[in-house]
Design a protein that fits this description.
It is a single chain. By secondary structure, the protein is mainly beta. The strands form three sheets. The protein has a five-stranded antiparallel beta sheet with strand order 1-2-12-7-10, with no helix packed on it. A four-stranded antiparallel beta sheet has the order 3-11-8-9, with no helix packed on it. A four-stranded antiparallel beta sheet has the order 4-5-6-13, with no helix packed on it. It starts with 12 loop residues before the first strand and ends in a 15-residue tail after the last strand. Bound molecules: fe (ii) ion.
Length: 213
């Protein structure tokens, strides 16, 4: 594992913005404060990546990135899996977004965005002990990745809790949790999703310097 040094907090945000990993010139100037991080933090230099920067306030006792959570803990896998929908390899296809209507009634719906099984992800945040990662793969995840209903499987006694700036590499089915913060804080969250994401959702930040291939 490695560490990142976050720039000064400025309320910067982009969500799943495509760019070229390792190439700061592929990221618009409003993210200039992240140039050093973009240059030095990547899964594979030169590959398409998807950058999320979320600098926003968090209230004490709440998780920063818990919008999806339907249970007490914001425990999730990055991708969801639709039951009964199979990819080319014959195994369920991970993805995001509401299932699109099936082309035929007998077929299952499809995620708006699909992810290759081997997509890797880097995450880091500016706040100590605000993210927990379990050394596991949770194949039986939900359609949107929320797995708060099986939180008993992932006790805090067997977890890695990230320090401020600590980089962690995940798979798309690695259980992890945005932890409640201990005090009101302006948190900086960084995520780089590697190549192998197909399609886009409306909330993805458009990057005029790097249109989605
Ligand atoms: Fe996550």
């Amino acid at each position: 594992m490695n560490t990142v040094e976050f720039p000064e907090y400025a309320g910067t945000r982009c969500l799943m913005m495509p760019y070229v990993q390792g190439d700061p010139d592929s990221v618009p100037s409003e993210y200039a404060a992240y140039r050093d991080i973009v240059s030095s933090v990547f899964l594979r230099r030169g590959d398409i990546g998807f950058l999320t920067i979320d600098e926003s306030p968090v209230v004490a006792g709440k998780p920063h990135r818990g919008a999806r959570a339907r249970h007490a803990r914001a425990l999730h896998t990055e991708a969801g899996i639709l039951r009964g929908v199979y990819g080319w390899g014959g195994s369920p296809q991970p993805g995001w977004g509401s299932p699109a209507p099936a082309p035929r009634p007998s077929w299952g719906g499809r995620h708006t965005v699909t992810l290759d099984r081997d997509v890797r992800i880097l995450i880091a945040s500016s706040v100590d002990e605000s993210c927990a990662v379990w050394d596991a793969e949770h194949e039986d995840t939900s359609e949107d990745g929320d797995i708060g209903h099986v939180a008993d499987l992932y006790p805090y006694s067997a977890v890695t809790v990230l320090k401020a700036g600590e980089l962690c590499e995940l798979g798309i089915l690695t259980p992890h949790e945005s932890l409640p913060v201990k005090r009101d804080v302006n948190r900086q969250f960084l995520r780089i999703v590697g190549a192998g994401v197909h399609g886009r959702e409306d909330y993805f930040t458009v990057n005029p310097l790097c249109p989605i291939p």
